[in-house]
Specification:
Length: 418
Amino acid sequence: MAEQYDFDDDNAKITSRLDIQKDDVQAVLFAKSSQLLNTAVLNGRQVSQPMKVFVVSQAGKVGDVTLQSSCHAADESILKVSPSCTSVYLDGSEIRGSQNASILVKYGSYTGQAHFLVWMPELPLIIKISDTKLSQIKGWRTPHSARGKPVNLGSPSRSRSNFAASSVTRSDRWLDREDFDIVCRLRYQQANIEVHTRFFSVDHNSGRESYLLSRNAYPRITELVAPFLRVADMRIAHLQGTVVRGMQSGRTEVQVLSPITGRVSGAKEVRVGTDKETITHLEVTVITGLQLTVFPDESLPGVFVSQTAISHKLTTQYQASLLSIKLHFSDGTSTLLADITDTDYHLSVDTFDSGVVAFAPMAGLHHPRVIAIGKGKGDLLHVTLELAERCQKRRSQPLAMAYAYIDVDFSNNKSYHE
């Protein structure tokens, strides 16, 4: 701008020159989050993040031009983007993570760029098995088909009725004939499976690796990969969900398969032995309530720890409580009864004082229940673990017995034991 002043004239004049420039714009890429966790490699389910493209002018005007833009990823082996720029995504075909994965966007003659942090799971996956040596359990026989596979006869509450011969359907006759092929064999121990891994990303400029949460943090991913668990030799062990159970002596592997390539992404050996272990005792815990406390972990920034406190006292009339039953074996291992197929055993619960506590029907529940009737305390419940009815004989002995301590107090005091 140039200005001239004429001070000799009584009427001063000002002459100005204005430079008018075009209102230029700049493309801006916007996403809800700049971090993506690649779980698609683990379960085959796409991970996506919505995205929009805006233009911002020097005059301060903002416009959404997502559908008028085009996008592409600098490296699709790390991160992918939809051509319409509506989302960035991971489909499981990626092979590495990155701290600076780039997305390029073009709108007319204008281009923009955005960077994302992509966390990749570390392979091979770590499989943890609570007991890698499974033995036979002395005296515990369970129903098996003639082919050696454990059978599910259905819970007692859903057992078939004894119909008259004239009313038996064809399917019922077929099931009855199958019943003759069921034999009772010694049951093997079982173990729980957990899968863990670390998530990492790489700075491609420096080659430096970073880990999600911490280098020492191995998040549990069992639920993500549970559908892809398998046993390499099903003659040796049987897999049900995340529980592996011995079938006959030998060695095999619990494996996690990749849903993308079908290859083994993690494995752990399990042995099934010929030795026999005994049930040393039952541990019966009365659970009337839970109290959850969450607090930050001092050693791992950004990580929180949850702590559960269990209440054992019945404080109101007709309050129901659960019985948590754990089986302890002679090799030092233990298994929750709730993790065992309910057709493999028969559970009896007797009360010594029906005026204090009563046993409630299980009705398909995994945990037996008791109900408070009146005040009292002591070892008032007698719990007996027996063979399944199909495998019981006239002189069959119980597998294990235990007494459960009951405390029924209708005062307002609540006692929690961590």
